[in-house]
Amino acid sequence: MSACRTCNRRKSDTIFFPHDLIERQDDEDGWFVHKTYGEWSIVFCDDRIGVEKKDYGFIEGHRMYEFDLIRHMHEKTWEAQVFRDMHTAFEHLRKLIQDPI
Q1: Dihedral sign, CA of 38, 54, 71, 79?
Q2: Residue 22: its pLDDT value, please?
Q3: Cβ-based burial of 17 (10 A; exposed 0-12, middle 13-18, buried ≥19)
Q4: How far is CA 100 from the centre of its chain?
Q5: In 3D, which of 16, 18, 63 has the Cα closest to residue 44?
Q6: Rounded to an integer, what distance in angstroms lies between the CA atom of residue 91 and that of residue 15?
Q7: 16 vs 62: CA distance, rounded Å
Q8: At 53, is the secondary structure helix, strand, or coil?
């Protein structure tokens, strides 16, 4: 059975994660954490996915390839482990975007 055109379009904009790949619910507004690396988390809701750091904010997934963003992140004065965790989270998200589950 196939969906009507309207329902099918709505489905295509939804991010789907199998329950066993969700680490925890992030808040009551529909955000979930897929994976955490130190202070960095890969978070998603129905239509957005990105990386988040407490006291820094959310970075939309499609921005992971922007040179200006990468340069900006490396100008921060965070400890070395925070940078390693950031790099690992960014690479994990890039892989998710390139090769969806």
Answers
A1: negative
A2: 84
A3: middle
A4: 12
A5: 16
A6: 19
A7: 17
A8: strand
The Cα angle at residue 15 between residues 26 and 25, in degrees rounded to 5: 15
CB atoms within 10 A of CB 54: 8
3-class SS letters over 65-90 = HCHHHHHHHHCCCCCHHHHHHHHHHH
Q: CA 18 → CA 12, 21, 41, 96, distances in Å?
A: 16, 6, 17, 13
Half-sphere exposure of 82 (CA within 13 A, CB side): 13
Please name the residue that has the structure tokens 């925070």. Answer: 82
Residue type, 49: I
**Interval 46-101: pLDDT, tens:** 888 999 998 899 999 888 888 888 888 889 999 999 999 999 999 999 988 887 65
- Token pair listed for 8: 């099918």
